[in-house]
Automatic annotation (TrEMBL):
Record's keyword terms, sorted: Cell wall, Membrane, Peptidoglycan-anchor, Secreted, Signal, Transmembrane, Transmembrane helix
Secretion signal, residue range per the UniProt entry: 1-24
Chain ranges of the Gram-positive cocci surface proteins LPxTG domain: 467-500
UniProt name for this protein: Gram-positive cocci surface proteins LPxTG domain-containing protein
Gly residues bias (residue ranges): 131-144
Transmembrane intervals: 477-495
Domain of life: Bacteria
Region (Disordered): 116-146
GO BP annotations listed: carbohydrate metabolic process
Length: 500
């Protein structure tokens, strides 16, 4: 689970919201939930054993200290074969509240509907069935309608179930984000959600669930995630805890916010970012740190990379980065179980540079390995090179000298190695050349590996005498290609536990 906003903003979002007294939500006894003077439970399921049955809005007054939420997304529908859809996601989290005196925070609840079932005729060879409709939530994250799919081996038609809808909690910020271009009081912002399950047949392209398998949790407080225990429509439920020490609340555990790492600095280097920070003054419960960097403007967390310091309580580490991009960088504090218990404010880097390519043969840090037999290669043919001890996930420039000619780039694997097949230029001069891999090591420092090859089958030296040197030209696909490799290959420095 990826937290999408800074700690301070998230607390304000979940705790304050748009303030104004509301009686839209009634308990079973007809009393507005904001007027209840004790710890109470609530649920959007009218059949649940709860003190308050919520319709759309949960108003909470300043008398309450926390809400323990449980969100379950709608499950996917069956396909026409009777195969069940996938269950929705489940998100559980306890969030402390800090509502201004004499004011009420309003939480808008959108339980996700279950996906409809696919139907078919008695003869599967006839296209006479119908797919299930996607579940609805009344907000964002509706499930996708199912569709028919054809099993080619049997030449039979089947119909997918609809995807379940996402269950979500939203607030109406007094001042919406500037990019929305909307007036205050007209923009709902989702702060918690649990995804809807895929309908049966989704593997054949039918019935994707709302939320597409992700959780949203704009909160600095840890939560736990999983799947719904019972299929069906989504439900939002929980416990609202009163701020009185004499009220027993055995079922509510409020996890206090641990002070977060401070003075975060991010220095953009060649294909990498050096991240440093200082420990908080109050570091009770902090057993380690994890830094992260996300490309500015990315539409998902797929490009986010992570690193941990060499020592558990160290205060620096290095992440790989894609040249040409800028990144938002932050640091998380972790408890003894590796769970996140605090997150710093973000800082933004300058544009990431590509590894430096020298105009002349650089000094070697080590030896590049090649499959050129006895160090001999033929112009226009392929050579496989291998290097090690680079920063995992970073980009390595591959160049042939003496006149530098780009042979492409490679992305370093999680063990610090890379292997790349390069093609020597057909017009390469006969004689001795050097193949060079330029990148950075795990500390973000320059690393250069070199191997000598003797080239034949190219151009005689006399034929190229007097030709002007036009300079090094990097491969034009570096930013896009490296981004694809990093995101598609999943080359993250540290695997992040998803709670998304």
């Amino acid at each position: 689970m990826r937290f999408a906003s800074s700690s301070r903003r998230a607390v304000a979002v979940l705790a304050a919201g748009t303030v104004g007294l509301s009686t839209a939500v009634l308990s079973v006894t007809g009393v507005a939930s904001a007027d209840i003077d004790r710890t109470y439970t609530f649920s959007t399921d009218p059949g649940a054993a709860a003190d308050v049955h919520v319709d759309e809005v949960l108003p909470v007054s300043d008398a309450f200290c926390s809400i323990t939420w449980e969100l379950v997304g709608g499950s996917g529908g069956k396909d026409s074969l009777g195969n069940p859809g996938k269950p929705g996601g489940r998100l559980g989290i306890t969030v402390p509240l800090d509502i201004p005196a004499d004011q009420v925070a309003e939480f808008y609840l959108f339980p996700g509907g279950a996906g409809g079932d696919g139907q078919s005729s008695f003869d599967p060879h006839q296209d006479l069935g119908s797919a299930g409709h996607g579940g609805m939530s009344g907000h964002d994250g509706n499930g996708t309608d199912g569709s028919k799919y054809l099993l080619l081996q049997e030449n039979e038609y089947f119909y997918g179930g609809g995807g379940g809808a996402e269950s979500a909690v939203a607030i109406m910020p007094a001042t919406p984000p500037a990019e929305q271009g909307t007036a205050a009081g007209s923009y709902l912002q989702t702060v918690l959600s649990a995804f809807g399950g895929d309908g049966a047949g989704a593997d054949e392209g039918a019935g994707a669930g709302g939320g597409y398998g992700k959780y949203t949790n704009n909160s600095p407080f840890p939560g736990d995630t999983g799947l719904a225990a019972v299929p069906g429509a989504g439900v939002i439920s929980g416990t609202v805890t009163l701020c009185k020490t004499d009220v027993p609340t055995p079922d509510v555990v409020v996890k206090p916010r641990v002070s977060v790492p401070v003075e975060v600095a991010a220095v953009a280097g060649a294909s990498s970012i050096k991240i440093s920070w200082k420990a908080p003054q109050d570091a009770a419960g902090v057993a380690g740190y994890q830094a992260f960097a996300s490309p500015v403007g990315a539409q998902s967390s797929g490009g986010t990379v992570f690193c941990k310091p060499a020592a558990a309580l160290g205060t620096s580490c290095v992440v790989p980065a894609i040249p040409g991009l800028t990144y938002n960088v932050g640091v998380e504090s972790l408890d003894a179980k590796g769970e996140r218990i605090g997150v710093s404010d973000r800082v933004t880097t300058t544009a990431i540079a590509a590894p430096v390519v020298a105009a002349s043969l650089p000094k070697a840090s080590g030896t590049l390995t090649s499959d050129a037999k006895d160090g001999k290669a033929v112009a226009g043919e392929k050579v496989t090179v291998t290097g090690k001890d680079f920063l995992p996930g970073s980009v390595v420039e591959l160049v042939a000298y003496s006149t530098p000619v780009s042979l492409g780039q490679a992305v370093v694997l999680s063990d610090g190695t890379f292997t790349a097949e390069v093609t020597l230029p057909e017009d390469m001069a006969n004689g001795t050349h050097h193949l060079v891999a330029s990148g950075v090591d795990v500390n973000g420092d320059p690393r250069t590996l070199v191997v000598e090859v003797t080239v034949s089958g190219g151009v005689a030296t006399a034929e190229i005498a007097g030709l002007a040197y036009t300079g090094f030209t990097p491969a034009p696909w570096l930013a896009g290609g490296a981004l694809t490799l990093l995101a598609g290959g999943g080359l993250l420095v540290a695997a992040r536990r998803r709670s998304a």
